[in-house]
Design goal:
Structural class: alpha/beta
Bound molecules: pyridoxal-5'-phosphate
Radius of gyration: 28 Å
Number of helices: 18
Helix content: 25-40%
Strand content: 5-15%
Shape: globular
Largest sheet: 7 strands, mixed
């Protein structure tokens, strides 16, 4: 193909042209090309590489930005969200119909737009916030993470993170010591969440048990064993690792403890052994998200030792999913007799029980730890901790990397899933461990437990309310409220254990859901009860089944419940009392709306705004 018009030949640039774009003071000449002018503008708006510039834009804008962030926060006793616009400001999918601007943007304008996005976001530090395991980040962790952003340390390898590597190495050491492992032998990598830790645990098992799989792919249907209460990210992990979701075997759980049923586990292991099928990973959940159930990990380990994989396969990996429950390890060695922190008699036995449940976690090969859950740090700060660094790191070792040179003794690039990896998570974890110390973490956890028990006592004193997870040892309170005049304790018992209570159970499930949705609506409507804004809570649409539905055949015979997780340090006894007032008020409003004393389903149907999966 030939074209009629000849492209003009670009003028050959000389080195002098480049030198001639700028004046001695760094400003561009009028004749400088447009790219050079943009570049000059950027050098005035990027962070200065050295100290003391009159106008380091980063420092100046952090100051401005902090003021704006402060304005986003409500006045004292304000609502549970930031800013002054509780509604969504966009529609879907139209929001995506947007293009990159042709011209360079205006720095101030971009920052203003960002601040606007936070308008209306839930305020995790508000004493009204108790909806889920969403902790407010502690100051040390937030600033540690900011350092990682400003100076962009990458934990890919030593040259790019230098002394910042200590954050990951020392965190692994501190956590290893906490667990009871030899700190010199442990390793830990920060990754993208509790599901990232799970993925590492599954992959460790696949690699150890099926060594050829690294080259050939997973060609054997090796199994993944976890309990029926294990987190739903089992699907992500078995799917994305190529192990296959059909290879997950779920062990029944004990009706009382919600922990793995050892008899059923043994049946499974015996059967797999007889059929010569290997198990890649066994997952013990050490603290489920809602009910805080612990699998009996010590006994699981003994069973695994009794049923080793068939010849030719490696040894099964035992992964402890402690992403939400890990901080209970802090109570393993608490002096319960002396009680130096002075916890009340009613919570001491529970703290002790949780500490004891964590005692045997040291038999795991690896453990998942989320600092962004009960570690009071921002995202993304999940640590995959492994007992035998030499083994894990050599098993997953890849060859040398031609772009990078080894400059320090620590080079995770050879075995991590990630390539570039922010140091933000490791710094957040490190800062949190250092800042809280043992007693700080014990105080904050024990304090939530004290608050929870206070709420339980308040609920017990209300005739129309009932706590429906009184035996849980975790930090969440689940409860139901009934129409005024109902004896809630008696009514709930009937719904839970008597098949004749089935219709009531379902009807009051709908009432519970409607109250949960009403409370959510109120937050966004700026509703006040007794002159105060209303709490941000959530609800569960089936945290357990009715006793006559043990085989889980009937999806309707489950228990809905309102949920309070008062995990931030600003929650007070006053806020807990206010919560119950608001719940009763919401119930009255729902029943009024339904137009009759006994709510009919249709009158109560609300859209599900709240994430209400069994485990959040
Ligand atoms: C939250 C949770 C996960 C998933 O963790 P993410 O950090 O959300 O990825 C896994 N297991 C348990 C028990 C959890 O509570």
């Amino acid at each position: 193909m030939s074209t009629a018009i000849k492209e003009p030949k670009p003028k050959q640039a000389s080195p002098r042209d480049y030198e001639g774009h700028w004046k001695a003071d760094g400003s561009p000449h009028a004749h400088a090309p447009k790219w050079a002018k943009y570049r000059t503008e950027m050098t005035s708006e990027f962070p200065l590489p050295y100290r003391g510039g009159k106008n380091d834009v980063l420092v100046e804008h952090i100051g401005k930005f902090v003021k704006k962030l402060d304005l986003l926060r409500p006045e004292k006793d304000g609502p549970a969200y930031l800013g002054d616009k509780p509604a969504l400001t966009w529609t879907y999918p139209e929001v995506k119909d947007v293009k990159i601007g042709q011209k360079m943007g205006d720095l101030d304008g971009v920052l203003d737009e960002i601040v606007k996005m936070f308008n209306g976001l839930g305020n995790w530090g508000s004493p009204l916030t108790m909806c889920n395991v969403l902790p407010q980040g502690n100051t040390a962790a937030i600033l540690a993470s900011m350092m990682a952003q400003v100076f962009a340390a990458s934990l890919i390898e030593g040259e790019y993170s230098w002394n910042v590597q200590r954050a990951e190495l020392e965190t692994a050491g501190m956590l290893g010591n906490l667990v009871g492992w030899d700190p010199l032998k442990v390793g830990g990598v920060f990754t993208w969440g509790g599901s990232g830790c799970w993925t590492y645990g599954v992959k460790y098992g696949i690699t150890r048990v099926l060594p050829n799989s690294r080259n050939t792919g997973v060609r054997t249907d090796a199994k993944l064993i976890c309990s029926e209460q294990a987190h739903y990210c089992q699907q992500n992990c078995s799917d994305w690792t190529g192990m296959g979701m059909d290879n997950v075997i779920r062990v029944k759980t004990d009706v009382k403890t919600n922990g793995m049923d050892l008899v059923h586990l043994e049946e499974i292991l015996k059967d797999l052994t007889a059929r010569k099928i290997p198990v890649a990973t066994v997952v013990c959940t050490m603290g489920t998200t809602d009910s805080s159930a612990f699998d009996p990990i010590g006994k699981v380990r003994k069973l695994m030792d009794r049923y080793p994989n068939p010849p030719g396969y490696g040894k099964t990996v035992l992964y402890a999913d402690a992403v939400v429950g890990w901080s209970w390890i802090y109570f393993r060695d608490y002096d319960f007799a002396g009680n130096p922190l002075g916890f009340s008699e009613s919570v001491l036995p529970i703290l002790k029980q949780n500490g004891q449940a964590m005692k045997e976690i040291e038999v795991a090969d690896c453990i998942g730890i989320d600092f962004h859950k009960v570690g009071f740090a921002p995202y993304v700060s999940s640590c995959f901790l492994y007992k035998d660094a030499a083994e894990f790191e050599s098993l997953h070792r890849r060859g040398s990397d031609s772009y990078l040179q080894v400059r320090t003794p620590y080079n995770p690039m050879y075995y991590t899933l990630e390539v570039s990896r922010t140091a933000g998570g490791a710094l957040e974890g490190w800062a949190t461990l250092k800042y809280f110390g043992i007693e700080g973490m014990q105080a904050i956890l024990g304090g939530i437990m004290e608050t929870k028990h206070y709420l339980r006592d308040l609920i017990d004193a209300e005739p129309d309310m009932v706590c429906v997870n009184p035996d849980d040892t975790g930090l969440i309170t689940l409860y139901r409220v009934y129409p005024k005049g109902t004896n809630a304790k008696v009514q709930f018992q009937k719904e839970l254990s008597d098949p004749a209570g089935r219709a009531d159970l379902i009807e009051n499930n709908h009432l519970t859901e409607a109250i949960g949705n009403k409370l959510f609506e109120w937050i966004r409507d700026g509703k006040k009860v007794d002159g105060k804004f209303t709490p941000w809570m959530s609800f569960s649409t089936g945290f357990r089944v009715a006793e006559y539905n043990r085989d889980e055949k009937d999806p309707e015979e489950v228990v809905f419940a309102l949920k309070s997780f008062p995990m931030n340090v600003f929650v007070t006894p006053e806020s807990m009392k206010h919560v119950l007032r608001c719940v009763q008020e919401a119930r009255d409003e729902v029943l009024k709306g339904a137009g009759e004393v006994s709510p009919k389903r249709d009158g109560l149907k609300g859209h599900r705004l709240v994430d209400a999966r069994k485990t959040a």
